Amino acid sequence: MTNGNLLLQLDGVSVSFDGFKALNELSLALESGEMRAVIGPNGAGKTTMMDVITGKTKPDAGRVMFGDDTDLTRLDESAIARLGIGRKFQRPTVFEPLSVRDNVLLALDGDRSPRFALWARESLDEHARIEEILRTIRLGTERDRPATELSHGQKQWLELGMLIAQDPRLLLVDEPVAGMTDAETEATADLLREINHTRTVVVVEHDMAFVRALGVKVTVLHEGSVLAEGSIDQVQNHPRVIEVYLGR
Amino acid sequence: MQLDRTTTAVTLVCVLGGSALLAVSNLLYPATSVLHVPDFVISLVGKYLCYAILALAVDLVWGYVGILTLGHAAFFALGGYAMGMYLMREIGARGVYANPTLPDFMIFIGWNKLPWYWYGFDHFLFALAMVVLVPGVLAGLFGWFAFRSRVSGVYLSIITQALTYALLLAFFRNDMGFGGNNGMTDFKDILGFPLNRESTSAGLMLITAAVLSSAFLLARAITHSRFGRVLVAVRDAEARTRFLGYRPESYKLVVWVVSAVIAGIGGALYVPQVGIINPSEFAPGNSIEAVIWVAVGGRGTLAGAILGAIIVNLGKTWLTNALPEIWLFAFGGLFILVTLFLPRGIIGLFAARPAIRGAPEAESSAAESAAREVAG
Hints:
The complex is a heterodimer of chains A (248) and B (376). With 248 residues, chain A is α/β, with parallel strands linked by helices. Chain A contains ten helices and ten strands. Chain B has a single domain, classed as Orthogonal Bundle (ABC transporter involved in vitamin B12 uptake, BtuC). Classes of the chains: A alpha/beta (248), B mainly alpha (376).
């Protein structure tokens, strides 16, 4: 089962809620350094898959291997986050009353214990990293404003910035362009590609134009398992995919 | 930031300067002088300052990490009982039954031996340690279980209320050995200073003012640290902090224990100044009142908690004398009015925008956020 190149491997994962099978023996493998788009109709299990990977939901069956030897199903959310898996939610959740830079500061990877946080002073290194991230997410001029004053698109970027700050090996991004303008959507695609230079990324998205713009391998989920996998053109011409998307 | 510094400075000057001024005019001017402050004012102010310490403790957990505690008076009362036990032992042979070790109430119920948990309370330092340890350990146990099992919102509020109610019932029992219904009273002196002497009252009030100021500065340091920013993050988006790798339960536990200890110290200062401690201090209503003081002053501002506790209690003192039957209505009405028209409390009047770090959003009043916590 060990493969040096695989970063994440879901193996026969099933989750049911009150009899409803949200995930049905889902198996999926992700290579290190890859960017993968996951699409699928509502209820296909996209969000549940994210929940299982990040420890929010425990699967009824199956394994989720991270790297060679870590089974994520045994760990809780914060332990998984500290292993280097970051998650961006569908609705941007930033810490509204805190300033933009404080949001990034709290996300910077490092000691998470209360004892450390009580005495922590911002180091020069932290300062430099925060400034760099703020430049990347184009929020340098907003650094001291409370996050609550940002526009919707800016909040999405701040959340991406917080993900970068966590310095994760794997980034899970849930519908990053929902509610964005075209210009914002384009900027977000650039941002994700930039992030992908150094990290593995999984993007869950409804917006086909955006998925096409990313130009990466696509996995189609349907009723909790993988329906098709390949380039965007391949999956769009796949008869079962057409049936699922158009047939009902 | 500027506003925050001003608020802090004004708070410290008012608390320390105000109480010093009162003490001076009480002790230095003869009772006939117009500048003389009567003794009852000193003990009233001392009492208000103790309430302010309790309010500060409530604001630290409610305002900054969103734990709507409806049982904080339990920690206050436990600190008070620890001090009361010392004061009982200090009475010694001067009690009605003139027993050098056993407090009167124990002889009254026919006990002839001091229970083990009363050992050591004849030493002031031991009692002080218990003032800190008893509320701290209880809060630690309670918080460890509650936060680890992710109890939050209204469920947490209800079990804090249950905690104080359970203690109320327990302390009512005579065979608990804490004086039952009557509690403890008739204290004579503290560290040899007679409690009925006016200089002792003034001294206790000044110590309370100093302790309140220190607790205020401590709470301010905590909330301004990176720890404090994590608290606010947990308050507003707990799940998000988990995905960043934080364990909200350990942050809650730390601040919960600190808050309980502050409340306990407030209770310990309260008992020698009012001269009595009995189970009614555990009454659920007391904890709810403390939450309202904070809402009136301004939740999540620390200074607002102090201000709210003092102003509401001034009103209570005045109204319960003038029109005792309407006090509860006025109190309830005040809560509604503040919620509707002063969502950020009295302190909110001075802040044009949410410049006070960590203060909850202007649009969401204390009651609304409480409702949201209930829903979430």
